[in-house]
Amino acid sequence: MSNKEIAYKGVMVADGYERIDGQNAFHSQVKKMTIGKPTRKENENEKIAIQIWREDEKGELYMETELPIHQVLDMMIFFMQTLRHFREAYRLPALYDAEHPEVARIDVQGGSVPVAVDISNEKIDEDLQEFSQALIDLGDLTGERLRVLMKIMEELSC
């Protein structure tokens, strides 16, 4: 255990994740996900974190990523706001309004963060086209997961 990690305290595990890892299914090095008390020092003040475990060349598992639960949820909000934008983006020149690149806001914890087209990207027009096509190409994978997520949220009365 490195000095950047504290003792592992997972409480739930999704073992065999390589079987459902999107386009990498059955070929993925990601073997499991865990959730529990954070294990990395930078997250020690958090209460819950999700970890992603990979298999190295020797077949041993190591924790590749650990994110506090609020960051995982914030990424989902960010993704959903992005999907919402691209659902209607075809109506806009170059898939966005260059004069108003902000497309949404993430409003949580009494604060707000803008979601905007990254106009600092020198190839934004080309990259937006590629990204839009990628969303279309991945529609089945993301759609299935979003339907599962919606069903669970309904069951939890969220």
What do these coordinates show?
The chain has helices spanning about 70-90, 125-135, 140-155, and strands at about 10-15, 30-35, 50-55, 60-70, 100-110, 110-115. By secondary structure, it is α+β, with helices and mostly antiparallel strands. It has 2 domains: about 10-70, no CATH class; about 70-155, no CATH class. It has a 4-stranded antiparallel beta sheet with strand order 1-2-3-4. A two-stranded antiparallel sheet has the order 5-6. It is globular, with a radius of gyration of 19 Å. The mean pLDDT is about 95.
N-end to C-end Cα span: 38 Å
Tally of distinct domains? 2
The averaged pLDDT comes out at 93
Structural class based on helices, strands and sheet pairing: alpha+beta
Strand content: 25-35%
Let me know the largest β-sheet.
4 strands, antiparallel
Give the overall shape, derived from the CA principal axes.
globular
Radius of gyration from CA coordinates: 19 Å
Q: How many beta-strand segments?
A: 6
H/E series: EEEEHEEHH
Helical proportion, percent range: 25-40%
If helices are DSSP runs of H or I spanning 4 or more residues, what is the number of helices?
A: 3
Uncertain spans, ≥5 residues at pLDDT below 50? none
Placed side by side, the strands forming the largest sheet appear as: 1-2-3-4
